[in-house]
Design brief:
DNA polymerase, domain 1, mainly alpha
Length: about 375
């Protein structure tokens, strides 16, 4: 139980066997100026044992704390896809460089050294880590250390004393207006015609579009409620909530996409065949499904797009670039940056401006040309 002992220096201490992050036990000493102070600390440790919560110290290795944090906190409180991403970042990029460092010995210099090493790291495909991924690794570390501060394991978050790594310039390759029109002509006979139209005209993310159910769409007004996403995580198809509060939004689709959806609904009913094989947790009224009633595989959408672009003799772009295409065309048509931010579900207007700054310049030039024509009567 941890007997309280008076020390020769006038203080008191007690030793208690506590749980550790790896599931074992370890003898831990607590100290205080008075017997009551030590008693309170001892009771807290014993209470942690009863709750099954590890009792950690600031001298533990960062790697051990990160394991505890990602398994006991992130895995419980965040989406499974977020947990999978954090676990990979910690295992592959943080622990190999900082895992052996003690929590209370971590310095801003260690964090800056980590960033420098990450810029030389390679992916499993042998490619250099992107600036965006380096920033993601840094943000995972900063988040973990923030939690350690809340748990009073460390007095400061040294990652907050280091400048956030730059994401660099965002490389986007949208279809231009002519190519977008050619793409729309090319998908007219495709069995996922409605999906392609929604992607290229609304800017929904692939997972958001594949996660749409008929109950999310008002077929009279065109109102679409974006509420869920679907993605493959570590071999499993997962349905979950959209990633941020801003991502949970309502958008409108035009009459062309509505007509395509109505036709898709009829064709889906004709194509379905028993027995149905929906994915786990799949909504009963999901819009985009195969003949077996299973959600369309996200990776197959990539393959289908490549085939469409090849047959149409168009430059190859990613599915995500259809989102960029929608945003670019909206801006060129006179939409404000805030309107595009709301449409795309970005967390902030700064994100939208950073990605589409060059498009904004072109849109402003077109507005000036338009005013010139009005002024001259041309």
């Amino acid at each position: 139980m941890g007997t309280i002992v008076a020390r020769k220096d006038g203080r008191f201490h007690a030793a208690v066997y506590v749980l550790t992050p790896d599931g074992g036990t370890k003898r831990k000493y607590v100290y205080g100026k008075t017997r009551d102070e030590v008693k309170a600390k001892r009771v807290e440790l014993l209470d942690n044992n009863r709750k099954g919560v590890p009792s950690m110290s600031s001298t533990m290795q960062l790697g051990d704390y990160l394991d505890y944090w990602v398994e006991s906190i992130v895995k419980v409180e965040r989406a499974e896809s977020t947990y999978a991403g954090y676990e990979t970042v910690i295992r592959r990029f943080i622990k190999p460089h900082l895992g052996k460092r003690k929590m209370n010995a971590l310095t801003p210099r260690d964090v800056r050294a980590l960033i420098a090493k990450l810029r030389k790291e390679k992916t499993v495909l042998g490619e250099k880590l992107s600036d965006r991924y380096v920033q993601n690794v840094f943000e995972v570390l900063r988040s973990a250390l923030s939690n350690a501060c809340r748990e009073e394991l460390i007095g400061r978050n040294v990652a907050r004393l280091v400048a956030t790594p730059s994401r660099g310039e965002t490389d986007i390759e949208p279809l231009d207006e002519e190519a977008a029109r050619a793409f729309i002509r090319a998908i007219a006979a495709h069995w996922l015609h409605a999906l392609w139209l929604i992607l290229v005209t609304t800017g929904l993310r692939k997972g958001e579009a594949l996660g749409l159910a008929w109950s999310d769409v008002d077929m009279e007004t065109g109102l679409v409620k974006v509420r869920r996403t679907v993605q493959r995580v570590r071999g499993r198809l997962l349905f979950g909530k959209v990633k941020t509060k801003r991502s949970r939004r309502e958008v409108y689709i035009g009459r062309v996409a509505l007509a395509a959806l109505a036709k898709h609904r009829q064709q889906t009913a004709e194509r379905l065949s028993e027995p149905l094989n929906p994915a786990p947790e799949q909504p009963d009224d999901l819009i985009f499904v195969t003949s077996s009633g299973r959600v369309v595989e996200p990776r197959n959408v990539n393959t289908m797009l490549n085939r469409i672009l090849t047959n149409a003799k168009l430059d190859h772009v990613r599915v995500h670039d259809l989102r960029h295409t929608a945003a670019t065309l909206l801006l060129l048509d006179g939409a404000t940056i805030r309107e595009v931010m709301e449409q795309l579900g970005h967390a902030s207007i700064a994100t939208t401006a950073n990605i589409y700054g060059h498009v904004l310049d072109a849109a402003k030039k077109r507005l000036a040309d338009r005013m010139d024509r009005r002024a001259t009567g041309d």
